[in-house]
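Run log // design_07
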């Protein structure tokens, strides 16, 4: 009788864990779609699919805006979007 109760309790616990784990997975999936508002130079390079050197060149030539926080150069996502819009026709006509 004791083993039957233990089996039922174990099955219930596993079901509860699966439900909780499923909810956690759903929440983590929704978070991955959120884009950052500020990008590091490396992240901006990945987004534009160019090298970090190219991002620094664009910053130096004032083609891309940035801000500095605690000695870190950061690029706002809006500035990346503006840059893409300004240069969209340059390569694809």
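design_07 sequence
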């Amino acid at each position: 009788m004791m083993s039957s109760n233990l089996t039922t309790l174990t099955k219930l616990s596993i079901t509860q864990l699966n439900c909780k784990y499923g909810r956690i997975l759903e929440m983590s999936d929704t978070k991955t779609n959120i884009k950052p508002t500020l990008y590091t130079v490396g992240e901006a390079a990945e987004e534009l699919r160019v090298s970090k050197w190219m991002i620094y060149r664009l910053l130096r030539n004032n083609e891309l805006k940035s801000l500095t926080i605690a000695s870190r150069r950061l690029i706002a996502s809006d500035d990346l979007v503006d840059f893409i819009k300004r240069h969209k026709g340059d390569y694809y006509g």
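Strands lie at 38-40, 67-69, 72-76.
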